[in-house]
Amino acid sequence: MKLFVSEMASLNGDPAKVTLHADPIDVNTSLSSLATAPISLDSILKKCGDLNRFHVIHYFFINLISMSSAIVGFYYVFGAAEPEHRCRLPVSIWPDDTQYYPINRTHETIINAYIPKTKDGTTWEKCVRYASANPNDTLISCPNGWVYDRSIFGYTFTEEANLVCSHEPLKSWLATLMQCGGFSLLLIGLFADKFGRKKVTAFVTILLFITCVITQVIMQWVPMTINTKFGLLLLNQFASGLTASTFSLIFILMLELTSSAHTSLAGNITLVSFTIGEAILTLFAYLAKDWQILKWANTCFIGLVLPYLYFMPESPLYLYSKRQYNQLEALLRRIAETNKKKETDWYPHYQEFLRNQPLTLTYGNKMPFCRKIHQTLVNRSIMTKLLTIALLGFTSLMLYIKISYGLAVMKISPYLGILIGAVVEAAGYITGNVLISTRLARKGSFVLMMTLTTVCVILIPIVIKHSPEATVFIAQFGKYSISGAIAVSWIFVPELFPTSIRSGANGFFIAFGRIGAIVAPIINTSISAEYQPYTSYASAGLAVIVVLLTLLLPETKDKPMDDVADYEINRSDA
C-alpha cells in the first residue's frame, strides 16, 4: 500500500498554504513508528540526521562569522594601542629624532638632559620635557610632538593622530563607537524575527563589508586632514559594532538548526570559535604591525564569508513559526539528503506533524508585527523574563570587564596576554557546556559559575595588597568562571523565549550586556584606588541578586525550542 499526499490549499489564497510533493512512501515501513511518541519539529530534526554531515559543513562556515566578530571586536586592542612614547627633542638639538630608544651615547645623553625620568626611574616621562637641557628649567608640554616605540605594536593610529597625553581621551571614542554600534541589535534582532535569520544576517554582513571597504579606501588613498581621517575611522568602528548583531543572529541560527539534544554543543562551538577569532586577530596584528594593514586583514576575513551567505540555511524553527511549510519541507529534505537519510526516515513523521497542526496555525493570518510587540509588552511572564535577562546580561559583561583588569598586572607581551585570555575563555566556555549537560542543567550551572565569579571579585581587592601573583591567579580563575557563566547564559536565554521573539529578546539581552561593558571601565577610571574595593563588593552584591533572580526562571534543559509558547502560533483569533 502506498501513501500519496496532495496539495493543501489555504483559504482565500493565503500565502501560507502547504504544498507537499513527496515520492510515494510505503506505509508498512513508516506508520509503526508514528504512534510511538508525540511528533514535534524537534523530533523531525532528529530523524533528518541530527548533528551530522549537514551540520558539520554549515557550522564550519557559520562560525567564520563568529570568528570575524572577534577579529573586528578586538581590533582596538592593537590598532589603537598606546605604545611607549616621549617628547621629541628640539629640531635645533637633534634634527632627526624619530627613534624612541637612543641610537648612540650622544643621543642618550641629550634625551636624559631634556626629558625627566618617571618616579621609578625606568622610563622617560611621556608628556613633558625641560625647556632647555637644564634640569632646573621649566617643564613644558611636548612642543615638537612625540616619538613612539614601534617595537611592540608597530605603527598604530594612536601614533598617527597623536592621541596621547591631553588628546588621549579622544582615543576612547574608537571603542565607545564600536560598542554603540552594537546597540543596533535592539532593532536588528526584531528584524530577524520578522524577516528571518538568514536574510538579516546576510544584509548586515554585506552592509558591514561595504562600509569598511569604502571608509578604508578613502582613509588609505585620499589626502585629508588627520581630523577627517579620525572621523572616518570612527564611522568604520561604528559599523564594526554590527558584528555584535551578526554574532547574535548566527548564534540563534546555530541553536535552531539542531534539536534540543545538541543545542548546548552548538552554542559552545560558536563561543569557542569566537576565542579562535581572538587568536587569529593576534596573529594578524603581530604580522601586520600597522593599523591600516590590520584593518584590511580584518575586512578581507569578513569578505571570505560573503559567498557562503547565499548557501546559508534558514532556521527551521523560524520557517515553522512563520508557517512557511514549503520552505520548511525543502530545508528538511536538504538536511536529510545531505545526511544520507532516506525519505521514509523522516517524511511520514513530517506529514503527521502537519496534520496535527491546528487550523488557526495552518490557515490563519499572520500576526502583524506591531501587534506582536504589543503582545510581548503586555505579557507579564515575558516581561519578567526580559527584565531578568537584562540585569543578567548587564552584570555578566560588567564583571567580565572588571575582572579582566587583573590581567594588567601581568608584565608580559600583549600578544601573549590575548592568547592566554582566549585559552582561559575557551576553557570556561567548554566547562559551562559540560555542566549544563549534567544534573545541574542550565540554572544550576549558571548559579555555580556566577557564585565562583562572585567569590573571585570579593577576593581580588583583599589579596592584591599582599600578593600580585596571587591576584593574577584569582583574576584568571575569575575570568574562567565568568566565561563559563556567560556560556551558560547565552544558551539559556534564547531557550526561554518563543521563536517569533527569540532573536529580539536575545538582542535585548546582549544590548544590556554592552551597557555593562561600557560602565565597567568608567567606574574603574573615575573612582580613586582608595574606593575601588567598594566597587568590587557592590558588583558582587549585584551578582548575588542575579543568582537569586535566575532561580525564578524556568529550567529549559532537554526542552525543544519549538515547544515554547509562541504568539505566532498559540493565539486567539477572537
From TrEMBL:
Annotated InterPro entries: MFS_dom (IPR020846), MFS_sugar_transport-like (IPR005828), MFS_trans_sf (IPR036259), Sugar_transporter_CS (IPR005829)
Source domain of life: Eukaryota
An annotated GO cellular component: membrane
A Pfam family per the record: Sugar_tr
Mode of membrane association: Multi-pass membrane protein
Localization (cell): Membrane
Keywords for the protein's UniProt record, in alphabetical order: Membrane, Transmembrane, Transmembrane helix
Residues covered by the Major facilitator superfamily (MFS) profile domain: 129-558
Chief location: membrane
Transmembrane feature ranges: 56-78, 173-193, 200-222, 234-253, 265-287, 293-311, 382-403, 415-436, 445-464, 470-493, 505-523, 535-553
GO molecular function, one term: transmembrane transporter activity
UniProt-recorded name of the protein: Major facilitator superfamily (MFS) profile domain-containing protein
